[in-house]
Write a structure and sequence with these properties.
- GO terms for molecular function: D-cysteine desulfhydrase activity.
- InterPro entries: ACCD_DCysDesulf, TrpB-like_PALP, TrpB-like_PALP_sf.
- Keywords: Pyridoxal phosphate.
- The protein is 38% helix and 17% strand.
- With 315 residues, the chain is an alpha/beta fold.
- The strands form 2 sheets. It has a 6-stranded mixed sheet.
- Bound molecules: pyridoxal-5'-phosphate.
- The site of pyridoxal-5'-phosphate has 20 residues, from helix 3, helix 4, strand 7 and helix 9.
């Protein structure tokens, strides 16, 4: 299906499985002395507040997957994730709300990965299937995926990042009642970034903060999900704020995030939203955000992950 066809479908009243949702999500001003010092104004697009169990970019990326499942008469959603995956958590919640069966293919051994995220998913009726790392690596390989294919099943890629994610994310742009100079967001697979590129106005810039090490592949992935990104100006991925790699963070980063949250009242976690905010402020301190900029930071959710980090004694 083309993006145009999907855009045309946006008007159909098919959101029900994802209700009740707070759409548009709130936009909150953020105040901080470093912003004043650099003459930059910042707002936070609170996608973390969209839904209590199905938050952030995962709500937006799943929206049209669920529509597709319904339209094609599918009764089962199957997807992939790590043991603390926000996407698995969101997919299980979506399945419960929509009456679709869900299966999560989880990287790791069952006994080594029981935690708050997976307990919630299981409690919402998701079937969990554990696979070793070697197998998990084949999650985009059609030969390996064939074992999960069934007429009743919609296979959703890891993180919900497929071309179907694009229109759901693009919709957030029109929810902001002005045209910011710069959008800032965390990125991992690049699906959310691809959707934002699709939705942004021509003059608007995007700074995506890669939360993982070796993010050189992300730009290609963005262009695979949304080919017009290759001919769209104004977006870049900052690769040097990963702070050690995916799901890693230094004590300094977590301390900064806690101080920032205490000062601004904005809840953040250190894997995505906190790391991206930290990255934005490093860019700001380095003088890479032009004076006078109006910046909208997208809070992509993920606060459910704090429980798992606490369980592991990492916070
Ligand atoms: C999954 C996730 C991301 C990464 O989004 P991509 O589309 O994979 O780049 C960012 N923030 C949060 C909170 C997430 O759960």
């Amino acid at each position: 299906m083309t993006n145009d066809a999907l855009t045309a479908k946006m008007t159909s009243p098919w959101d029900a499985p994802l209700e009740p949702a707070q759409i548009p999500s709130p936009l909150h001003p953020v105040h901080h002395p470093l912003l004043d010092a650099h003459g930059v104004r910042l707002w936070c697009k609170r996608d973390d507040l969209i839904h209590p169990t199905l938050s952030g970019n995962k709500w937006r990326k799943l929206k049209y997957h669920l529509q597709q499942a319904r339209a094609q008469g599918k009764t089962h959603l199957l997807s992939f994730g790590g043991a603390y995956s926000n996407h698995i958590h969101a997919l299980a919640a979506a399945g419960l709300r929509s009456g679709l069966r869900t299966t999560g293919i989880i990287r790791g051994e069952a006994d080594s990965v029981s935690n708050a995220t997976l307990s919630a998913a299981k409690g919402w009726g998701m079937d969990l299937v554990f696979v070793d790392r070697q197998s998990y690596r084949r999650r985009q390989d059609p030969d390996w995926l064939a074992q999960f294919a069934a007429p009743d099943t919609l296979i959703v890629p890891e993180g919900g990042s497929s071309p179907l994610a694009i229109p759901g994310v693009a919709e957030l742009v029109a929810e902001v009642p002005f045209s910011p100079d710069l959008w800032v967001l965390p990125c991992a697979s690049g699906g959310t970034l691809a959707g934002l590129i699709a939705g942004k106005r021509a003059r608007e810039q995007i700074l995506a903060i890669a939360v993982l090490k070796g993010g050189g592949f992300i730009a290609n992935e963005v262009c695979r999900l949304y080919p017009a990104a290759a001919i769209t100006d104004g977006w870049r991925i900052a690769l040097d704020h990963h702070d050690g790699g995916y799901a890693r963070f230094s004590p300094a980063l977590w301390q900064w995030v806690q101080a920032f949250s205490a000062h601004t009242g904005l809840p953040l976690e250190p894997i995505y939203s906190g790391k991206a905010m930290w990255g934005l402020f490093r860019e700001l301190a380095a003088g890479r955000i032009p004076r006078g900029s109006e910046v909208v930071f997208i809070h992509t959710g993920g606060l459910q992950g704090l429980a798992g980090l606490k369980e592991q004694g990492r916070l």
